[in-house]
Amino acid sequence: MSPAVLGGLLGGLFGVSLLLVIRRLPFLRKPSIDDRIGPYLRDLGGGDVFVGVTDSGSPFAAILRLFGPSLRAGAVRLERILGAAASIRRRLARAGIDRSVEEFRIEQVLWGTAGFGAGLLVALVALSFGVGNPVGLLVLCGFLGVIGVLSRDTYLTSQVRRRERRLLAELPTVAELLALSVAAGEGPAAALDRVARSCRGELAVELQRVLAETRAGEPLVRALDGLADRTGLVALSRFADGLAVALERGTPLADVLRAQAGDIREANRRELIESGARREVSMMVPVVFLVLPVTIAFAFYPGAVGIRLIAG
């Protein structure tokens, strides 16, 4: 790396560091309205927005404590750029993650910073070997930062899908256990309590939340409707709606639960068959583009070599 490029990088790093220090001087910092009234509202639920993150065993606890104000400002700017807070809040609820939208934006900022740092490391190594253009490498760093921000959103979507698959896998067993409990003479609330205490998994946690809402004074039908709204799954919505209708109209609950368990197992079987058909089509890609050309090459290459020897 030439002395001019090295001097430019060091000068730019020194300038950015000096700018950050000057911006954080006490007489230049203008406290926001949240910072001014936050200490007075801490007992009422205000205060530090990172309490839920740092107290939950997050690996970013030390980073949040050190760079909390900067991360908060970055999360606010990212929210203004990306928006879609309602979609983020709904997907966090469907993934079973007890986080706010602002905490999720902070994680996106951290992922983007990690991507930018990785790109900066690659750029420094490339420049040390005299490879690449500094402007292009800087663009690469920014691109990796954007990829990091978007990767956290994609990872949240994958978390939602994994949890939904677990819920669908647990639903038939839970429905049959509820049917057995109701057929044994227990009431709907007692049957839900027994199944929630005896089972383990995502659906058992949701049932415990439903029972907690009913103990707090919420009607059981409304709590089941909230379960259907939180999960967003069609099968689970039908399960909750069937329970609610059976409770309201007095229909035999055990028969309804057994029928729903059978319907869910049939839907899972159809989905498994469809997934197998899609995998069968995708398996044709390596066969057609890898195995078949190699087979043709092994079949025709000896003949081509023999013809060339005879012709020579």
Give an overview in words.
There is one protein chain. The protein is an all-alpha fold and 312 residues long. It has a domain at 166-268: Up-down Bundle (Receptor-associated Protein), CATH 1.20.81. 81% of the residues lie in helices and 0% in strands. It is built from 13 helices and no strands. It has helices spanning 3-23, 33-37, 51-54, 61-66, 68-82, 85-95, 101-128, 134-183, 188-198, 202-215, 220-231, 234-249, 253-311. Helix 8 packs across helix 13 and helix 10 runs antiparallel to helix 11 (220-231). It is flat, with a radius of gyration of 29 Å. The model is unreliable at 43-56 (pLDDT under 50).
Specify the overall morphology.
flat
Strand content: under 5%
Helix content: over 70%
Strand segment tally: 0
Structural class: mainly alpha
CATH architecture label name of the domain at 166-268: Up-down Bundle
Distance between the termini: 54 Å
CATH class of the domain at 166-268: Mainly Alpha
Quick rundown:
The protein has a domain at 166-268: Receptor-associated Protein (Up-down Bundle), CATH 1.20.81. Helix content is 81%, strand content 0%.
Write the SSE topology.
Elements lengths: L2 H21 L9 H5 L13 H4 L6 H6 L1 H15 L2 H11 L5 H28 L5 H50 L4 H11 L3 H14 L4 H12 L2 H16 L3 H59 L1
Main location: membrane
Pfam families: T2SSF
InterPro entries: T2SS_GspF_dom
What keyword list fits this structure?
312 residues; mainly alpha; Receptor-associated Protein; flat; Tight adherence protein C; T2SS_GspF_dom; cell membrane; membrane; transmembrane
